Structures are given as C-alpha cells and as structure tokens.
Amino acid sequence: MSLPTLSRQPGFLARLPKRYTLIALAVLATFICYIDRVNIAVAIIPMQEYFGWDNETKGQVLSSFFIGYMLFQVPSGWLARKHGGRILLGIAVLWWSVMTILTPPAALLAFPLLILSRILMGMGEAAMFPAAYDLYSRWVPERERSRAIALLLSGIPIGTLFALTVTGWIVSQYGWPSVFYIFGASGILFTVVWFAAAYNSPAEHPTISAEEKNLLASVAAKTAGDGAVPWRRIFSERAVWALIINHFCSNWTFYVLLAWLPSYFRDVQNLSLTGAGLYSAAPWLTMFVMSNLGAWAADGMIARGMSVTRVRKIMQITGLLGAAVFLLLVKDATTLAGATIFLCFACGILALTWAGFAPNHLEIAPRHASVLLGVTNTAGTLPGIIGVYVTGWLIDRTGTFDAAFVLAAGVSVVGAVIWAAFGTSKKVID
Q1: pTM, two decimal places
Q2: Ramachandran quadrant class, 84 (left: phi over 0; alpha: psi -120 to 50; beta: rest)
Q3: What sign does the dihedral 410-415-418-419 (CA atoms) show?
Q4: Per-residue pLDDT tens over the stretch 364-408
Q5: Alpha carbon distance 358, 376 (integer Å)
Q6: How many helices (H) and strands (E) does the chain have?
Q7: CA–CA distance, 207 with 98 (Å, rounded to integer)
Q8: Nearest by Cα to 351 from 395, 425, 293
Q9: For burial by CB atoms within 10 Å, which of 46, 322, 355, 397 has the most?
C-alpha cells in the first residue's frame, strides 16, 4: 500500500500552491526540532537537583548538544546538495527523535552516556536547516524569500515557546523523563507525513500546476549544475566571512537566552519551575511576531525598489544593536515586569536579523546555499558551546547574570560593525 500524499486530497489543501505545503512542513519540522532541543532547558532544573550537578556541569550538559550540531553542519550541507533536502530532512528528524527518547535512560545509566546522547542528537538536528535551504533554493521565488525564511525560522520561537510552557507542566505531573518520551514520539510521527507529502523539487511533484511550475522554473535554473563545491572561492570572499561572523554574533544572544532564561527567572526572579517556564516563553512569542513583521517589511521594501543589500543591512544592524541595548537594560532591571519587558524587546529586535543575514545564503551563493548554510551555521553553533558554557562559568564566578548580558551585547555590536562594512546581497559565488 502506498502512502497517501496531500496533493491527492480534495478541497482547499489540494488547491494551495505546492510550495506552500513544502514551506509549512519545513516550519513544522523546525518546530519539532526546537521542542526537542529546548525541553532540556526546563527539564535540566529538576535533573540538576536529582543528580546534584553544579552550574558548570549543567552548562556542560546544555552545551554538549552543540558539539554534534557543529561538527555535522558542513557534511549536512554537502549531503543536501548531493542527495536533496527531502531524504536528508526526513532521516534527520527520525534520528534526533530517537536520540531524544534515549536521553533519560542515558542520564540514569552514566553521565558520559548522557553527553554522548546529546552529541548524537545534535548531529541529527544539524541537518535541519541545510536540508531546508536546499529545498528552498528550488521552491521559493526571490520575491517571497524573506517571508519564507522568516516562516521557517518562526518554528524556532514557537517551538521554544511551546517547550517552555508545556515542559514544566509535564515534568511536574509525570516527572522529568516523560517529556523526552512525549516530544521524541511526535518527531517519529512527523516523518511519516513528511515522506508522504514533501517533494525534492517542483519537477518531481505529480500534481503541481503549470503556472506554479513555470514560476519556479527560473528559481530551479539558478541551482542547476554539478555538485562540485567551490571551497576555495567560498572561503576567499569577504561577503562570506561577513555572513559567517554575523551568524555567530546573531546566535550568541539567541543561544545564551535559549539555554539560560528559565534558570534566570527561577534563580534571579525567584519563580517556581512552572513560572520560570511561562515567563521565559514571553520573549520567544515576541520573537515570533517580530520575525514575521520584519520579513514582511523587508520584502515590502524590496518590492518598492530598495536595493536588497540595503534592506539586509537595515534589518541586520538594527537587530543586533537593538538587542545589545536591551540586554544592557536587563542587567539593571529591578522588577520582574521590567526584566521581562526588556528581554521581550531584546528577542523581538534580534528577530529582525532573520531578514538580514538569514536569507543572504540564497542570494550570494544560490547553487550552494545549503553548503554555505552549513559553513556559517558551524560558526553560528559555537555560541551554543562557548556562550552557553561561559554563561554558566560567569554565573558561578560572579553570582549574577550581569557579566553574561554585557558580553552578549558586546558580541552584537561587533557583528553590526562588520555587516555594515562588508555585507552584500550580490551573487559572489556561481
């Protein structure tokens, strides 16, 4: 019996452009990616108490995921370029979901096994965005690019929001191991839907309309050619290095807040586990809203004739400098409400960078976007290792989050300066 496909279903879904189905499924994959990644930010609080870890050990657990995530970025980009994003993304979701389910038994058996399971999980999730960018390079027209990328990345704050609000309740009701089993199972179910409904290119889709196929023909033409990757050219372009550095700088604040917000609200603002999860969710909801508003604004400016390079610079620099300002305000906040508002502004303005550096891979290297994403996201993963660990070290040494917020603000300023000098949307790699 063959698996059903959404394209064979009657009614509204069948009439939608097929690229919308692909984008929606990719967003759902990102959502699952982040609920599996973020649940430990809340679950690790009772895990820390259960196993008697200090904050430095806690930081090791949180950061170990990013070792596998970083090491497999470039191979994932190459595999997506060679075999296509559909098969890679489906296998990746299945792999990281199994690793999520294995997290509790690994933790209970031995600490090294827990670290190994998190590294292996990171290897699976490393394929998420290179695979999606490979698919987007054939499925998304240039005039829809900012919005499509923003929707893809919207799965990050929505998945984070869901995990932060739900994980605390699940842990309080059923214990910390249960959340890994529940979230991991959802990813396994998703893979069935993905392989039934996703196609690697418009040419492979059995029921795509002639109108949409013609629309996407020029997009596909830009990705045509052999799979040879011009590695020397990639690493010799200033625009690529500006993108690499800005992926790193944009992700520093993001990963530090992703891993440490629940602990901040519990330890600094004296909230319960459930309350810490709920308050931590507010900045990510703000990020979801602002990422999509920023993307609509960016595509609107491009449609009105503003140069794409100028739009990318406006969004990226505003996002980084704005986030830096509000991080500095957070450290001096004296009330729970004030701290929450400043953190919401920091995450919300940071989300503008998703209409800055994030679509840039598809612009400067359209044929090799998945590989380039793998390269830049390798650098973008370093904050998940260094930033998350250093934050724990700073908290242990200083007793506050102040130094961590100042450091994150400084990293953002560096990124803004470099993007202003060297960022461009012109194609630099054929």
Answers
A1: 0.81
A2: left
A3: negative
A4: 998 888 899 999 999 998 887 788 888 888 888 888 888 999 999
A5: 10
A6: 19, 0
A7: 33
A8: 293
A9: 355
Task: Determine the residue type at 298.
Answer: A
Which pLDDT tens digit goes with each residue over 314-369? 999 999 999 999 999 998 888 888 889 999 999 999 999 999 999 999 899 988 88
**Whether the Cβ atoms of residue 37 and residue 125 lie closer than 8 Å to each other:** yes
Task: Note whether 152 and 23 are within 8 A (CB).
Answer: yes
Q: How many CA atoms lie within 13 A of 258 on its CB side?
A: 32
DSSP 206: T
Half-sphere exposure in the Cβ direction for 167 (13 Å, CA): 34
Which region, left, alpha or beta, applies to residue 208 given φ > 0 means left and ψ of -120 to 50 means alpha? beta
Cα separations (Å) of 181 from 8, 28, 114, 349?
33, 19, 15, 34
Q: Which residue has the tokens 């984070």?
A: 160
Spell out, as residue ranges, where the chain has pLDDT lower than 70: 1-14, 220-227, 273-274, 277
CB 78 within 8 A of CB 374: yes
The radius of gyration of the chain's CA atoms, rounded to the nearest angstrom, is 21
